[in-house]
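Per-record layout

source: Arthrobacter saudimassiliensis
name: Phospho-2-dehydro-3-deoxyheptonate aldolase
length: 462
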Amino acid sequence: MTFNSTDTSSTPTTAGAGAVDAAVDHWRTLPISQQPDWRDHPGYGAAVAELSMLPPLVFAGEVDVLRSRLAEAAAGRAFLLQGGDCAETFEGATADRISARVKTILQMAVVLTYGASLPVIKMGRMAGQFAKPRSSNEETRDGVTLPAYRGDMVNGFDFTAASRAHDPARMVRAYHTSASTLNLIRAFTQGGFADLRLVHDWNRGFTANPAHSRYESLAAEIDRAVRFMDACGADFEALKRVEFFASHEALLLDYERALTRTDSRTGLPYDTSAHFLWIGERTRDLDSAHVDFLSRVRNPIGVKLGPTTRPEDALALIDKLDPNREPGRLTFITRMGAKNIREKLPDLVEKVTASGAQVLWVTDPMHGNTVTSPNGYKTRNFDDIMDELRGFFEVHKALGTFPGGLHVEMTGDDVAECLGGADPVDQDAFVDGYASVCDPRLNHMQSLEMAFLVAGALAGKK
Ligand code: PEP
Ligand code: MN
């Protein structure tokens, strides 16, 4: 978020009318999947009307700043770090948990900045990541079948009929929870708590763990770099403020549409629920409502691409979502799985590059590597995650293209959801330590370890 005094473009957006609205609403005529079943709910109209009246969560000017930052990354001059929960929850939106997540992202970013020698764009899967696509509409436990949990914006996680009923009033609560989350993030990143020296100090806790001794030399190099900057008179006051952007999967189009406003400066529609929105692997069909809706807002857009993506699918998505080939507009977030990435990614990258499009390539090394542990938990192996990451860097190196970012499911807390790491998590720890309501996240230490490994690889390449 850019609340610097030099940012004059943070003009509020106003609800628009006429032709702009008609275009933005075209998705309503198209096939749509993964939506709640609440159009006939007595509270539906009131919830949508209330959301439509509430202030934007982000400003159009901030969204434009992010697009220019992502354009830098697409050109190989910056690196994107995007991280957070698979599914945020209302209960989990506490000061401690939000600040632990932001701190962890900032800590990772310092390490990656050093490794890449590039600015790192910091972005949370935060302040809106409340709706989940599901492979099945229903869940059965002990012979009882209820609607599947679709995220706190739709229904509750508790396995009771009342909790699992789809309730449109939850969209309004999601808005307010997002607003208070953003408020804390803005205070944290703009209020002087993100001082580079302080963030670097937090990382000492990581290397103090004997399991992480192999990262000591890189940590010492970063330490020397910070002291060198200090000795040279670097303006650490200026480094106390960092830009931090919010993002989520644009899944519930009722919510996204209600928060879409026409910018008073440009007359163009912006989805003000977040700076960056992405389309999930399950909703990226070219002729779908999701792709159409996001083609019509000015925000930078991501699309998840799984192993079944054909190059012609990627090219058609570019034509629809980025017809003007505007750097920073489109990010492809590949999530191939460690077993597939070296085989599937090259063709995709080659054909997209040959088309002349300048997309930003980001790896999501989580979603293609989900397995069930012998004791029945949805999990991921740290080694598989790192293997996909390495594959991503190898492919781009071989093709001469830029591996521009990292998209991860992580938390700042000491949970046990993913297996492995230098201070290994084993499946027995899941019994007490598994807290995710959806996919498994890297815990605080695993997240930092990933940053050190990626930074080591990036630094080694130079
Ligand atoms: C997610 O990011 O949580 C998700 C569901 O990802 P994908 O669309 O890649 O499966
Ligand atoms: Mn997920």
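summary: The longest strand covers residues 403-409. The chain has 16 helices and 15 strands.
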